[in-house]
Predict the 3D structure of the following.
Amino acid sequence: MYKVISSIKIRAMLKINLPPGSLPPNAEKLRSEVRDFLAKHLSDYSSAARAKSWAGSDPAFSELLGQQGWIGMTWPSKYGGAERSALERYVVLEEMLAAGAPVAAHWIADRQSGPLLLNFGTEKQRQKILPAICRGHSYFCIGMSEPNSGSDLASIRTKGVKTKNGWQINGSKLWTSKAHIAHYMIALVRTAPPNPKNRHAGLSQFIIDMKRPGITIRPIRNIAGDDMFNEVFFEDLVVPNDMLVGREGEGWSQVTAELALERSGPERYLSSYQLLYELVSELSINPKERNAIGVGRLVAHLATLRQMSMAVAVILEDGRSPELEAAFVKEAGVAFEQGIPSVAHDLVGRSILLGAGNFDQVMAYVTQAARSFSLRGGTREIVRGIIARGLGLR
Ligand SMILES: Cc1cc2nc3c(=O)[nH]c(=O)nc-3n(C[C@H](O)[C@H](O)[C@H](O)COP(=O)(O)OP(=O)(O)OC[C@H]3O[C@@H](n4cnc5c(N)ncnc54)[C@H](O)[C@@H]3O)c2cc1C
């Protein structure tokens, strides 16, 4: 019996393919350019601000990145993209995250809304929207979760009804990151009544211009004091017909592809990087072998995750969907980044959260923010379920 179970598990694990690799020379050359850029433009950026990682935003900084050609980097030049490789994009993301650069304004548009439009959008939608994203002028938010519909996304109740003027939308979205600064939302909406035989049918995606009448945005302050996400209400909002993304009723498969992009990047293991940096500085004041071992463990873990995450970028480069691999790296990455505060607490070994130094400030922030890391982009249980299904174990 044991042998049978083991062989099933081994065969299942073989479905995850994350071969180690190295970055091509052009990507490493780009790394020094990005580092010089960051040293110049973020020279007076505080540790506390860097600790916000990819949740911190600054429209002027997004515009500067647009000028560098570092937003929409892999997209066709006819839409404003730079036609560079997924691995070059990986280097830019990695350096931005390591520096704690304020990238949140354009992050969602660059990571998933733009690619969604490249995959499923109309030519008119692409021409209208993608160049402004690449310039760092157009930001997106994700309208998936609703009250009582988070993990069970197929149960959403926001409704779209076809009228002679377009789609009339009523309902609400919840936990919508950066909706208060976004120009557009990609919203998942029920456009046909629920079908008990196929829960994923009857859902459609729309591009919603956040300036249209019928939209109310209410901020929700998180535990760390950030106005990061929002509730968004739609009351008789009218969305023009040409703002439907892809095909009516096929929103579920589009959303699944989008979620693979949402889970695939280095932001899923580098969110606590500033704390690791400050921890090393703090421990360097009075070096001890025990601390070196603790930090060594973290760095070895980080290096392994980096290899796995880069392998996901290779899958994207090859034009394949990284659904299973991205879920796997997200789960392992989130466990790592969420665990750094308790390792730091153990190694520093004094009362923390009360001091005014860089380490204390960053520790206080990351300890609180880390709670959310295993919720955003799909909870731990849901992501583990996806991995189990992908491996044929469920
Ligand atoms: C920082 C942050 C930013 C976010 N930004 C966005 C955004 O921009 N746009 C957006 O649409 N959403 C966003 N979300 C929402 C996020 O996607 C949801 O919080 C998440 O999907 C969980 O949904 P929920 O909060 O309704 O919790 P629930 O789905 O109610 O889950 C509660 C608990 O039950 C567990 N659970 C639920 N179902 C199962 C199951 N079948 N099996 C086992 N366990 C289960 C979950 O794992 C979780 O632990 C954000 C969340 C956070 C924390």
Remarks:
- Strands lie at 140-143, 159-163, 166-173, 184-190, 203-209, 215-221, 227-239, 244-245.
- The domain at 142-250 is CATH 2.40.110.10 (Butyryl-CoA Dehydrogenase, subunit A; domain 2).
